[in-house]
Amino acid sequence: MYDKKNKLNAKTWPLIFQDSPDDVIAVQNGKVISRAQFLQHVNQLATRLPEKAYVINLCQNRYHFMVSFAAAILARQVTLLPSNQVCNEVNTLTEAYQDSYIVLDSAIPDLIAEQFYVEIEADDDLAGDGKTVPEIPADQMVAMVFTSGSTGQSKGNHKYWGELSAGTALLASRFGFDVSVVYTIVATVVPQHMFGLETSILLPMLTPTRMHIDRPFYPADVQRSLAEAGLPRVLVTTPIHLRAIHNAGIDWPETKFVLSATAPLSRDLAEGIESVMQTEVCEIFGCTEAGSFASRKTVQDDGWILYDGFSLRVGRSRSELLAPHLSQPVYLFDVVEIISPGHFRVLGRHADLLNIAGKRASMGDLNQKLMQIKGVDDGVFYMPVPFEDEKSVVRLAVFVVAPDIPDDVIMLELSRNIDAAFLPRHIIRLEQLPYNNMGKLPHQALSDLYNRYKRK
Predict the structure, then answer these.
(1) Cα 141–Cα 145–Cα 150 angle in degrees, nearest 5
(2) pTM attached to this predicted model
(3) Which pLDDT score is estimated for 387?
(4) Domain residue spans in the chain?
């Protein structure tokens, strides 16, 4: 566990937290996996992995992912975590990192790299040491996590074991995962994303927390997984899933609290979730470069509270995030305003700030006003790149999922809340927005949709 006084400069960090080998690390369908069993699975797998420098972990089963990730650490391999699992993107990654292979637990067609399949039975009676916890050098690079591409091109970020361990401990301290109460986490997010990696993989590895192995998608699946998890339970999810949960009309098991990230959560939806689930909703703020570093109780505050140890340095053109466990300052894409020490407000992303006809707005604020329209189930504003033959000023467009209201109603409601300079020229209707498996809207996916619409 994290020791604020002594651990930040430690040369090694344990692979897992273990008070007792019999403590549970994972649960599913009434079965439990102990921390000793986990170490046995990891040690066994580490000896079987291909001898390569990099491994692309595409495991769908959360426990398979965690075992493969830990085994790669023991084998001193760097785990590459792509922003999505689309075949072309994975193949591009394997071409860039040729001394790599893919670990997976279900077939994905048309992959070009060497593939290694993981098969682990949760109740295996394995021989071998399950009590000795390996110490991992703090400066060992264990992963490269790629950004989602929601602001443009995906970019890889080096992750070292000491940095991940210290960051996870700060997250655990904020939400009480490092105390005697043992929570079970049910997560709808993928472990390949930084939010999912921290909350559904690293928290169970490095704190007493247990993971529920499933990754439920539909509300009924979430309900079942929460019921299986037992008390006390925590739901880790996204605004997309929370919207579906809110509208599901079903009863929910007692849940200590909900953690949401990947996109802004409206106060109205947070209040609705707290009402239907009889729980508390918290948001996590972070980035791939630094992990999570702030949180808020959405129904109480539109500002964010930094985790202990983090600080912000706000300049005219950019803001820097600093912390003792980060090797260098992290430059934020967000425009922030300091409310008080350790307390800040996000005004928008630099890339999302608009200046049209001398008037300013942020895409985040426009999206919030769009989503407040009754009958709009989902939607997002989009600033197109002009075609070569377009001479006029390019205007905003909106993508909407709103089957029950016409365009003129959407325009009327928008005109009541935003300046005319930011009213969309095009309303593009979709059955659903092109979210990736991390709950993000990749910029390229929106661009492709807009270009197809314009060429009709």
Answers:
(1) 160
(2) 0.84
(3) 44
(4) 13-348, 357-454
